[in-house]
Write a structure and sequence with these properties.
Blueprint: H1 14-33, H2 40-47, H3 51-67, H4 69-99, H5 105-134, H6 139-189, H7 198-207, H8 211-235, H9 238-246, H10 255-285, H11 290-315, H12 319-338, H13 346-375, H14 380-409, H15 414-460
Helix pairs in contact: 1-5, 1-6, 3-5, 3-14, 4-5, 4-6, 4-14, 5-6, 6-11, 6-13, 10-11, 10-12, 10-13, 10-14, 10-15, 11-12, 11-13, 12-13, 12-15, 14-15
């Protein structure tokens, strides 16, 4: 392994093509991940299983979408954005094709849960990281535009899947999704062109310079190669080298990163459950016809898109603004879920869907940019990947837990109260990050002043 050369953000040009590609890929990856709730009724009818067992399928997939972030970072270094995205699309396609042929619910845990989860995860993380590298000045806006594809995906899939399941059944629905993932993932993944290295640009300039300048360039090149070799040797090889690529342990020594990871975990409790159980609550709990209930997920997608674009544009104005906006989004998701008992009619559920979609979508748009603000662009792959990996365990627990709560209490409101409380607690943890960073900055300032005074006293003496 060699050290990766420094790259320069473009803030435009091909970067906008990358944003468009990320928009489409995230629409496909997020759209098929968070519309599983629409498929719960036909799967329960086909396999005659409880909500607990059915919801576990929909929990494994987002769990692995986030957990894959740990492995995606090193894969991006070794193979590049384009290859990793296309491989993810192929893996997800295979998962959906296999899901269409199963005769046991337990096979779906692997085909739908594991294969499509890992495949969607590779596409998701690559798209998020790629946009961060292509932009600096307009990073929040570009990220908001890219991740708004997830909202469009929710809207399209939430309208598309109910029609398909009614007309051709859930098996052929999986095959149709497989075709969509394959075409869009492979085609648009090819647009993830690597950024040109700053070192390469300097080399090209020096090659056009006079002989003396060319000799200096040759010396610099040799010196750079020596440095790269020494870095590669220091990084080590074998098991420890691979482990150090997968995990940047220094991040877990950072209190701010620990708090952020815990806040994301709490948010994920409240993020996944409404997408899974809003339709069953409306249909089974309130007696709203299934076709009308399916519209609620589509409304979440619409508000998701609008909020991501608006919040992304506003957040570009200041780091402080986007930091506090992110915390408000976590709190908003928790509060509206805790008040779910007030939304007891179809019209009120429309209001709930719009509010929840706006807050949840805005958080997804803002958190990658906040991570760059807090920990730097140099560690963006590791910091996003590891934060997502920690938060992934909420997906694994939340779905089955809430399914068990519904089976036990026969109440569709109770799960929303539980996950809403988790989100509110997560917002408190998130705002503590600011206090931690302020104390850390003041400590660094005090240390520098002490060193300066010590230097001055030594100079006088």
């Amino acid at each position: 392994m060699t050290a990766k050369a420094e790259t320069k953000p473009l803030d435009g040009g091909w970067g906008w093509i990358v944003v468009l590609a990320a928009f489409v890929i995230l629409a496909v990856a997020i759209g098929n991940t968070y519309t599983f709730g629409v498929l719960i009724p036909p799967l329960r009818e086909a396999f005659h299983k409880s909500y607990f067992k059915i919801s576990l399928i929909g929990s494994i997939q987002p769990f692995l979408v986030y957990l894959t972030g740990v492995f995606a970072g090193p894969l991006l270094k070794w193979y590049g954005w384009r290859k990793v995205t296309i491989f993810g699309a192929l893996l997800s396609t295979a998962g959906f094709c296999a899901s269409a042929t199963v005769n046991s619910l337990y096979y779906l845990y692997f085909t739908y849960g594991v294969l499509t989860g890992v495949g969607n995860g590779l596409m998701y993380v690559t798209s998020m990281v790629c946009v961060q590298h292509y932009f600096d000045k307009y990073r929040a806006l570009a990220t908001g535009m890219a991740v708004s594809g997830g909202g469009i995906g929710l809207l399209v899939f939430a309208m598309f899947i109910p029609v398909l399941k009614d007309r051709v059944g859930w098996r052929y629905t999986f095959l149709c999704i497989a075709a969509i993932v394959f075409v869009n993932g492979v085609v648009w993944g090819a647009f993830y062109r690597p950024l040109q290295n700053v070192d390469d640009e300097e080399k090209n300039k020096k090659e056009r310079a006079p002989l003396i300048s060319s000799q200096q360039s040759s010396y610099s090149s040799v010196k750079s190669d020596v440095i790269r070799v020494s870095i590669a040797e220091e990084s080590g090889c074998g098991c420890w080298g691979i482990f150090s690529e997968l995990f940047d342990l220094s991040l877990f020594m950072n209190g701010g990163f620990i708090l952020l990871s815990m806040a994301i975990t709490c948010f994920n409790f409240g993020y996944h459950v409404p997408y899974t159980f809003t339709t069953p609550r409306a249909n089974k709990g309130l007696g709203i016809p299934e076709k009308k209930a399916d519209v609620l997920i589509a409304l979440m997608g619409i508000s998701n898109v609008v909020a991501r674009l608006c919040f992304g544009w506003i957040a570009d104005h200041s780091q402080n603004i986007r930091f506090y906006m992110t915390g408000v989004c976590i709190f908003g998701v928790g509060l509206v879920s805790c008040l779910i008992f007030l939304f007891n009619s179809f019209k009120l559920l429309i209001v709930y869907s719009i509010i929840f979609g706006a807050f949840s979508g805005s958080f997804v748009a803002l958190f990658p940019v906040v991570i760059v603000d807090l920990f730097g662009i140099e560690k963006v792959s590791q910091s996003i990947g590891q934060a997502m990996a920690v938060g992934s365990f909420a997906f694994l627990v939340a779905g089955p837990l809430c399914g068990w709560i519904i089976d036990t209490t026969k109440s569709y409101d109770a799960p929303f109260l539980v996950v809403g409380g988790a989100c509110i607690f997560g917002s408190i943890l998130y705002f503590c990050i600011k206090c931690f960073h302020k104390s850390k900055e003041s400590t660094q300032v005090h240390s520098k002043r002490t060193q300066r005074k010590h230097y001055v006293s030594e100079s006088i003496s």
